[in-house]
Structure formats: structure tokens, C-alpha cells
Design goal:
The protein is of the alpha+beta class and 419 residues long. It has two domains: 7-72 and 224-235 and 271-417, no CATH class; 75-200, no CATH class. The chain contains 15 helices and eleven strands. It has helices at 44-53, 81-92, 97-112, 116-131, 140-148, 158-174, 179-186, 190-197, 205-210, 249-253, 280-288, 301-316, 323-326, 360-379, 404-417; strands at residues 7-19, 31-34, 37-42, 75-78, 154-157, 226-228, 231-233, 238-247, 259-279, 334-340, 384-389. Strands 1, 2, 3, 6, 7, 8, 9, 10 and 11 form a nine-stranded antiparallel beta sheet that branches. Strand 2 and strand 3 form a beta hairpin. The two termini are 24 Å apart. The relative contact order is 0.19.
């Protein structure tokens, strides 16, 4: 059976004034040239991080599985998962740190995969250890982190962490002479692999949405079902250096000038176009553990709720730094949701020629209307769509959702359910 396509596209226009939403390595606002004009930019990584972590009514962490009522599993993202979440508890159970390190290093290689560099590093460590006396570590945590922390942040679900801990405990209780051989033998048992792969939502909700990369064939590699573009301003960048000082109260009270700090930062303003695509069949497959071609046969309740939450989150979650000094909070002026089977397409081309900043809010709707008219004359209309906006959208031949953003989210959820 061929893979069926069905995409949700979400387009937004969101205004910000006097903020520094996303900084580069020198502390300046991120930028990108487009259409011959430098635009302000908010990276997709920044946007996704805020959507994952925001504490609001629409937080993804509040979702429950509609079929069971149970809280949906979430991932842990860290370089220190194996040392702190698995190794240290096992040591606290009474297992020797050196044997815990030995078994977990083999499990780590088996379950997460092992790059050529990691293999070389392990060989180098083993050679050094063979040539030197055993080092006494006063701090067990330090030993575990030194030996077990990964070079990069890894993503594991809680059920997977517990599986790894239980497996390590089982092998430690068997006290084998060769942990590598013991691990290989353990994973040759069909029931072990079946149990691991049967962990529904084991990778966690956020990994189901935004993906995860593993190099082994033991854990499931997760392709991202949610594709997020970098947000760009629809007009040329608007930025200004912000000169500020901090007052030293004690110096001032002593009759001195009282300046404790003089520094310059950057403030920016802009109307940002945001674009998100959700691959609905892949989302259902990731969440429900079904083959992607069989997504319509699965329970669609959780996927529909995820889509509803995403629309609210994208429209109402601000990606902002310098919270205390800029209050970078804003809601989208405009949200357009489209469903269709054809390849998605961004509408940023409507702003290839930068708008005049002073007319950006009203001008953006006109630019979208003109671009869509030309696009649809060439390709036709192949999406079902609705919008919610506080702007005048009469130039766009797109119906407004009843009930504003809440109505738009409910409509999108119904599209996923097939109703």
C-alpha cells in the first residue's frame, strides 16, 4: 500500500516591538538576507523549544491519551541521562560503580549506536586504563559522568530509561565475566526486542512531534512530523542599540557617581511571518505506533488534540529572551490553517519584496492576497482552509473560522478526525 499524504499548514503573522527575541553567538538579534534585504529572524529551534516548554492552558504536557486517560509520556533531553537517571540509581542500590559503568557502556553502544569516534575514544580509554593504576574516585557521580555522559544531547522517553535500567540490573545480578558478550546475548532474545519496540509512546510526545536521531537499530529513530520554518520579518530589519547602565547603590550613597555597569544591547521590532507544516499520517504513526500507511485505521483522538494544542501554542507563545527588561509577549495577528494532500508551500514568497515597515500589518494581508491569486491561477486551489485574524482579511477569499482562534483549532482537530 502506498503512503497517503495529508498535510496541515499553519501560517502566522505576529508583531513584536522593542524586543530581542533570538540572539546569535555575539548577543545580537539573528538575521537573514531575503529578497536583497536583511530581515530579523527567529530560529526554528528557538520556536520549538518554547512550544515544548511553555506553561499554559495549551501546554503539550497537559495532554492525556483519550483512550486510556493516562498522561502522555515525555522525553528527557540531556547528555547526562545514563549517568544520572540510570547509573547513579543502580549504584545507590548497592552495585559497584565500576561494574555499573562497564554494563552501561555496553548498553549505551547497543541501544544508542556508536560512532567511529566513540569507538576510538573507548579504545583509547581502555588502553590508558590498562597502562595506569586504578584511580580512586571520591565522587561516584563524577566517575559516572566522566565515563557515561554522551558527547551530544540524547533524547529518551521515561519507559526507555526504565527499560535500560531494568536490563542493566538484570545483567549486573548475573555477574558475567564479559559484559559485551552478555549484552549481545541478551538482545538476541526475541522477547527482549519485542518488549522494547512495544513501548507505546516510549520516545515521548515531543520526540513524536519533533523527531529524534539514533544510530542503532534497537531504538526507534523518529522522523519529525512537525516541520518548522525560521520566522522572518516581512519588512527590512528594524533595530537600535540600547545603551543602559546599572546603578551601584552603595557607591551612590557614598557620594560617588554610582555607575556599576555600562553596556549596550540591541532592541528590535518587526512583524514576523511564521510557517509550520504537520505531516498528519506520520504524526499518527509516531503517536500510535502504527504503520504510516495505516494511519486512518488508528485512534485519531490524541493526534487531533495535539493539532488543536499546536495551533493555540503557535499563535499565543512568544519566543523571547530578556524577559525582565523587554516583556516580549505577543499574540499572532493572523493565523491561516490549510489541509491538503499536495506538497506544502510556504507563503513567504509574498514578502520577497520587503514591505514598508510602517504599513506592514495591513500591507501583509494585501501581499498575501496578491501572491495567492497568482499562485492559484497557475496551480489551482488544492487545500481546505480557514483563518482567524484581528486584521481586515476581506481581500483574501478564505472563510473565517467561527469563534476565532478556538474555532480554528477545533476545525483543524475535526479535519484530522475526518469529520
Amino acid at each position: 500500500m502506498s503512503r497517503e499524504s495529508f498535510f496541515l499548514q499553519i501560517h502566522t503573522l505576529t508583531p513584536y516591538a522593542a524586543t530581542l527575541l533570538n540572539r546569535d553567538d555575539v548577543g545580537a538579534a539573528k538575521r537573514l538576507p531575503y529578497g536583497g534585504t536583511s530581515r530579523l529572524r527567529v530560529s526554528s529551534q528557538c520556536l520549538k523549544r518554547h512550544w515544548r516548554d511553555v506553561a499554559s492552558r495549551w501546554s503539550l504536557r497537559t495532554l492525556a491519551d483519550p483512550t486510556t486517560g493516562e498522561e502522555v509520556a515525555w522525553t528527557v533531553r540531556s547528555r547526562k541521562i545514563i549517568s544520572r537517571e540510570i547509573g547513579l540509581p543502580l549504584v545507590n542500590e548497592g552495585f559497584a560503580p565500576d561494574t555499573v559503568v562497564a554494563v552501561l557502556n555496553e548498553l549505551k553502544a547497543k541501544m544508542l549506536g556508536e560512532s567511529k569516534k566513540a569507538k576510538a575514544d573507548k579504545t583509547t580509554k581502555a588502553d590508558k586504563k590498562a597502562k595506569t593504576d586504578k584511580v580512586e574516585h571520591a565522587d561516584v557521580t563524577e566517575l559516572l559522568e566522566q565515563e557515561l555522559d554522551t558527547n551530544q544531547v540524547i533524547v529518551l522517553g521515561r519507559p526507555e530509561i526504565e527499560f535500560m535500567k531494568t536490563t542493566a540490573r538484570t545483567l549486573l545480578q548475573q555477574t558475567p565475566n564479559d559484559f559485551k558478550a552478555a549484552v549481545e546475548a541478551y538482545f538476541k532474545r526475541k522477547e527482549v526486542i519485542d518488549n522494547l519496540r512495544a513501548l507505546r509512546l516510549a520516545a515521548g510526545l515531543d520526540a513524536a512531534l519533533f523527531g529524534r536521531m539514533v544510530t542503532s537499530d534497537i531504538l526507534a529513530r523518529g522522523d519529525s512530523a512537525v516541520h518548522v520554518a525560521h520566522a522572518l520579518t516581512v519588512h527590512a530589519e528594524e533595530a537600535e542599540p540600547d545603551y543602559f547602565t546599572a546603578i551601584d547603590d552603595l557607591k551612590r550613597d557614598a557620594g560617588e557617581l554610582g555607575t556599576g555597569l555600562i553596556q549596550t544591547s540591541e532592541l528590535t521590532s518587526g512583524l514576523y511571518y511564521g510557517y509550520v507544516v504537520v505531516d498528519i499520517p506520520l504524526l499518527v504513526s509516531n503517536l500510535e505506533g502504527v504503520a504510516v500507511e495505516n494511519w486512518r485505521e488508528a485512534d485519531l483522538g490524541l493526534s487531533a488534540r495535539v493539532v488543536e494544542h499546536l495551533i493555540h501554542l503557535i499563535a499565543t507563545t512568544s519566543a523571547g529572551a530578556k524577559l525582565g527588561s523587554t516583556a516580549p509577549y505577543s499574540y499572532a495577528d493572523f493565523v491561516l490553517a490549510e489541509f491538503g494532500v499536495a506538497q506544502p508551500r510556504s507563503l513567504m514568497t509574498a514578502f520577497h519584496k520587503a514591505l514598508q515597515a510602517k504599513e506592514a500589518r495591513e500591507g501583509a494581508i494585501g501581499a498575501l492576497a496578491r501572491y495567492l491569486a497568482g499562485f492559484e491561477e497557475m496551480y489551482g486551489v488544492d487545500t481546505t482552509r480557514q483563518l482567524a485574524s484581528q486584521l481586515d482579511t476581506s481581500a483574501l477569499p478564505i472563510p473565517r473560522a467561527e469563534g476565532g482562534l478556538a474555532g480554528l483549532a477545533a476545525w483543524a482537530g475535526a479535519q484530522v478526525r475526518g469529520k
